[in-house]
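We modelled the chain as a single entity of 236 amino acids. Its sequence is:
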Amino acid sequence: MAPKYKRILLKLSGESLMGAQGYGIDAQRVKDYAEQIKEIAQSGVEIGIVIGGGNIFRGLSGAAKGVDRVKGDQMGMLATVINSLALSSALETEGQPAQVFTAINMFPIGEHYSKWKAIDAMKAGKVAIMAGGTGNPFFTTDTGSSLRGIEIEANVMLKGTRVDGIYTADPEKDPTATKFDKITYDEVYTRGLKVMDLTATAMCKENNLPIIVFDMDTKGNLKKVLDGEPIGTLVY
């Protein structure tokens, strides 16, 4: 079956890379992700990826402990670069070419990001991993992934998380929470749902980039989303 989307922006959370460890990078979790990503890349889907850095450092929590907010956010950007290198290494171990791009110039760690270089890499069959957020403080990696998804002209943003979609409340805390199959950007905003930050949601709305929130930690789910199976929640 032909995949539903030709080009995707996959947003992965840094926390998910921790696996069961509670910090850092779990090698098995990264390997699982790499296997899933390789499978869809081989079906002809062009893949751009943005990864958070929360498993290593969060600018906001650093600021709460007295770290300068701008420096804290810069530390968070570096954390996303570490995660991106780990994923690119795992992909290449699986035989899937990947290239790391960085929002700030960090040659030779990664190539300085430009839309055209990233698109060229994807067209050549590489997974384009875009690290360093937007390169600016006060923006989350959610906003970074919205920006990159719009720039690379992705058909959809897939937000891989630990939960299987968007709920009326946090399902890990509220057993009565019910899941949405689909929801509008405006409803996410008016209900105050913590899907992504407001800047990211607004950018996706203004540029008509649909979002699918799904559970990436269940192996095989990424392919199911691309096959058009109704898992996760569609934001439109």
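As a brief sanity check on the tokenised model: The chain has eight helices and nine strands. The two ends are 24 Å apart (CA to CA).
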